[in-house]
Structure formats: structure tokens, C-alpha cells
Amino acid sequence: MASRRLALNLGQGLRKRAAFKAPSPLTRGFASPVNVGKTQTTNLKNGLTVATEYSPYAQTSTVGVWIDAGSRAETLETNGTAHFLEHLAFKGTQKRTQQQLELEIENMGGHLNAYTSRENTVYFAKSFNKNVPQCVDILADILQNSKLEESAIERERDVILRESEEVEKQVEEVVFDHLHATAFQHQPLGRTILGPRENIRDITKTELVNYIKSNYTADRMVLVGAGGVPHEQLVELAEKNFSGLPSTSPQTQAYLESKKQPDFVGSDVRVRDDAMPTANIAIAVEGVSWRDEDYFTALVTQSIVGNYDRALGNAPHQGSKLSGFVHKNELANSFMSFSTSYSDTGLWGIYLVTDQLTRIDDLVHFSLREWSRLSANVTEAEVERAKAQLKSSILLSLDGTSAAAEDIGRQLVTTGRRLDAAEIERTIDAITEKDVMEWANKKLWDKDIAISAVGSVEGLFDYARIRGDMSRNF
């Protein structure tokens, strides 16, 4: 669409010049004063950060608010509050009823959504460029003026309880919730996003209001725009709609706990269910934070271990040594390596699914043997393959205004600055096999592990046996 518009504009310009016989160098027509594709940031007086990536030829824009507060900002008693608030955000404000809010979004052909994670809460809207002021007004309204009516709270309580039941049926979600719970025992990061069912039943308006007062403050929020919204316009809209936000967060006990460096605990949790046809096992070491200098090295190492799914046609040829070995010996249905990062820690590991219930020990053993190999014997070829896959994955994930807004918001909330695509590419290109082996020696070799297993896991050996495979010599 951008090239078509450029061609049309250029053609119109040529016809006009021919009619008036006023020659002008063609090169001048391409000059532009805008910062195309660059991330611009401005801090308002109250501390709110405004960030944009302007694309002058985009017909739509995504605007959203990224908040440095999620389930990690809760106490044991209020766990689930952030997610509960996300549900109530669209149920009416002081200015708009739920019906008015829904009609307003529908009439502009827009899209309004929100999600909660362990460290962030996000509200965002996608619309035509002309409707950006209306979207910012709606976002400001639901963040600052939600009514939180008792009737809406009771309705959403039932909805969230049903959602909790659905999540409990998703094995992967259950495994990773248990993995966090055992790796970060009795700490905010180890709690689930939805919260326990007893909390969902007991959360009151008072707790919801207190969470907003404690966390929805300007210093912990970033207003992001990506697409056809100029930076200056979004700054003006921010000053108009968000200038009344409190500047700082109160130093509550929950806030102090959320900012405390969590301790990684080597441990395991097993939920045996012989009615399940598979064993579902996640194994992780303490990973890297978003700010860690080895963040991209961890991602390259993860890509070397790779992923595998025997249902795919290319299953025997998925690149990594482990996938080839697992396929040849029919050890697993699938596996997925992962590197999950948070503001001050992370989890790096592998998620295994197998119906070969008598060979679980072989699968775990050879997976961890591959981890040990990374400390001493990594080839240049596999590092280059992993780097190419990683760069492709990152760049493809930035396609579209919503993806760009997500990347900007997440980076600014967690690290305070955004790495552009070129900087990411240079950083990844600089990683060598020596860097990978040094990282593996530091983070994998003979390190404690957290294990979460669900399903037919009788064949999974005891923790000490598995832990012994973390320092296997060849």
C-alpha cells in the first residue's frame, strides 16, 4: 500500500510539473523531516513516558498503556487482583456505560483488548489513524475512571472462575505454573496470574481500588503508539488525558516484595495422573533477566537446543542435534526449549512431552547431556544456524503495528530503552561459539534445576539422579 501511494503521489507531481512547466529536481520529493521507523520518547512532568514508532504510510495505529505491575505486585492474600481488574476495565466508567464503550469501539471499527502477565498489565487499542484521539481517551477513561460496580464484580467473578477451570485443562499452562511455583517458592514470582480459586471468590472492590492506587501511577506506565500516529500528537494526547495521574507509587509491602531479587530454588513438583497418555515435563535452570548482558547469548543457546515435533513433516530435519537424536530413537512426541526472562531473573530450560512412558529417563538423560555438551563442544556451524533462526524469529515477530507497540512497551517498562532491529542484529551477529560455551559453563554446568512434571510420570527418576546429569563428562 505504501509503494502504491508513493507511485500515485509521484505521478500526480509529475503531471503538475508538466502543466506548469516548473522544473524541480525529483530527488527533493523524497526528502522527509519525520523520524520514520525510529523510536521517540518523551517524559511528561508527572513521570509518564510516551513512546512512538511513526510510519507515515500506515493507515492504522496501535496505542496502548504498558504498566509495570502484574501478579508479582500482589500479596499472597490479593493474588489474582491484577487479572480481575483487567476483566473489569471494560465494564463501564464514570463517563461510559459498558454498552456505550462497546458501541464506541464497534462504530469506529476498532479493537480494544488487555492482558495480564506476572510483571505487566497492558491495555491497548487498534484503530484507523483518525480515531487515535478517541482511543487514547477511552484508554485513559478505563484506567482512571472505572466504576468497579459490585454487580459487575460478581458477574466477572463467575467468568474468571470458569476461565480458571479452562486453564487447568491446558497441560502446558499447568506445567509452567508449577515450574514457577517450585523454582520461586513462597515468592511473588512463583504465584499464578489468575490466583487461587479461594482468592477469586473473595476479592472485593476495596482490594481492586487499592491495587489501582498502588500501581497505576505515572512512573510505572508507558503510553505507546505505533503506526500512523506522529509522536507530537501522542504527546499532546497524553498531556490532555494522563496529566492527572499520580507521579509515584506508595512504598507498600507488596511493592517492596515485588522489587526484591527472587531466590531460585532447586526442587521439583510432580502431579501424577496415570489416566493421561503422556508425561509432560519442564526442566529449568535460573535464566537471565531482560537487562542481562548475556540475554541474547541465552537465546542463541536456546536456539541451538532447538524444538521438535514429530507430527511435522520436517521432524527429522529440524536442525538441532537433540531433535535428530530424539527423532531417530523415538523418545518424544515433542520438545520445546525456552528462555523466559523477567526484570531481575529468568528461567531457561526445556519442555518435554512423550508417550514413551518406559523411556522417560532416556529422554531426560539425553536432553541434559546435550546441555552438558554446550559447555565444551559447540561448533561454529550450529551457532551460525541458531543466530540466523533467532534473528529471523525476532524480526518476523515485529511485523505489524500491534507487534511493534508490544515490543516498545515491554522494552521500555523492563529496561528503560528500546533496542532497534539493527542493534539487535549487530548484537546477535557478534556472538561466537566461545560466548555460548562460556555462558553454558556459567549457567548450566553443575547448576541446580527446577522440575515440574504432570501426567504419567512414574518413570521419571528422582531429583538427585536427574540433578547428577547436570555435570556429565564425555
UniProtKB/TrEMBL annotation:
<keyword id="KW-0496">Mitochondrion</keyword>
<keyword id="KW-0645">Protease</keyword>
<feature type="domain" description="Peptidase M16 N-terminal">
    <location>
        <begin position="50"/>
        <end position="197"/>
    </location>
</feature>
<dbReference type="InterPro" id="IPR050361">
    <property type="entry name" value="MPP/UQCRC_Complex"/>
</dbReference>
<dbReference type="GO" id="GO:0004222">
    <property type="term" value="F:metalloendopeptidase activity"/>
</dbReference>
<dbReference type="GO" id="GO:0006627">
    <property type="term" value="P:protein processing involved in protein targeting to mitochondrion"/>
</dbReference>
<keyword id="KW-0482">Metalloprotease</keyword>
<keyword id="KW-0479">Metal-binding</keyword>
<dbReference type="InterPro" id="IPR011765">
    <property type="entry name" value="Pept_M16_N"/>
</dbReference>
<dbReference type="Pfam" id="PF05193">
    <property type="entry name" value="Peptidase_M16_C"/>
</dbReference>
<keyword id="KW-0378">Hydrolase</keyword>
<dbReference type="InterPro" id="IPR001431">
    <property type="entry name" value="Pept_M16_Zn_BS"/>
</dbReference>
<comment type="similarity">
    <text>Belongs to the peptidase M16 family.</text>
</comment>
<dbReference type="Pfam" id="PF00675">
    <property type="entry name" value="Peptidase_M16"/>
</dbReference>
<protein>
    <recommendedName>
        <fullName>mitochondrial processing peptidase</fullName>
        <ecNumber>3.4.24.64</ecNumber>
    </recommendedName>
</protein>
<feature type="domain" description="Peptidase M16 C-terminal">
    <location>
        <begin position="202"/>
        <end position="390"/>
    </location>
</feature>
<dbReference type="GO" id="GO:0046872">
    <property type="term" value="F:metal ion binding"/>
</dbReference>
<dbReference type="GO" id="GO:0005759">
    <property type="term" value="C:mitochondrial matrix"/>
</dbReference>
<dbReference type="InterPro" id="IPR011249">
    <property type="entry name" value="Metalloenz_LuxS/M16"/>
</dbReference>
<comment type="function">
    <text>Catalytic subunit of the essential mitochondrial processing protease (MPP), which cleaves the mitochondrial sequence off newly imported precursors proteins. Preferentially, cleaves after an arginine at position P2.</text>
</comment>
<keyword id="KW-0809">Transit peptide</keyword>
<dbReference type="InterPro" id="IPR007863">
    <property type="entry name" value="Peptidase_M16_C"/>
</dbReference>
<keyword id="KW-0862">Zinc</keyword>
